[in-house]
Amino acid sequence: MPITGRDWEILIVRSREETRVGKAFARTVGSYQVFHDGTAVAQLSGTIVERQGPGDNTGTGVSKHRRVAAGTYELHTHDGASNEKYKTIGFTSSARVHAIPRPALRLEPTGARSGILIHPANGYLESIGCLNPASALGGPDDNLQWSDSRSRVIAIIDDLKAFLGRDFPSSNNRKIPRCQCVIDGEP
Question: What are the tens digits of pLDDT across the range 160-176?
Fold first, then answer.
């Protein structure tokens, strides 16, 4: 599933599933790369982690806590309910793990799934259907590090804002123009 080579794109390529001893579920590990008009942005790449497969955007995917289906998605700014843990505009400046709201972008449309986000994580996995950026992980015993994951999400948001300039939405829960997320692979 190739990128278009136009505008701002983030490509996620899934490569493996792994399960830590003592965990009831697997995690999917892949890579991400941001592109500007088809050119890779070197400092905006890394590992990405999400729940086990298969990809499923139906009600079954919700009930079985599966990863989102491979495909091409719009990106939106995000702000859920008033007690929401994640926001694109207005996330906390605190780097503490439990400080909210945390930085995030939302994928749409995702069928029966709602709140599919790119957001930071800590530990084995912090997600039901969401995507958590990280540094390289050597295997199921490696943890995502909060400060690294958080800085990666903020770097993605900041790059998207810089690329779009005044076209970046000024409020949350808006479609972000001229960008997309491409998810490839079903390991």
Answer: 999 999 999 999 999 99
How would DSSP label each residue in 118-176? E----BS---SS-BEEES---STTPPBPHHHHHHHHHHHHHHHHHHHGGGS-SSSS-BP
Q: Letter for the amino acid at 30?
A: G
CB atoms within 10 A of CB 8: 22
**How far apart are the C-alpha atoms of 23 and 124, rounded to whole Å?**
9
* Cα pseudo-dihedral 128, 124, 152, 50, rounded to 10: -30
Contact 129, 67 (CB under 8 A): yes
| Alpha-carbon gap, residue 133 to 171, rounded angstroms | 24
- Residue ranges for the chain with pLDDT beneath 50: none
Compute the mean pLDDT over every residue in the chain, rounded to the nearest whole number: 95
Q: What is the 3-state secondary structure (H, E, C) of 34-76?
A: EEECCEEEEEEEEEEEEECCCCCCCHHHHHCCCCCCCEEEEEE
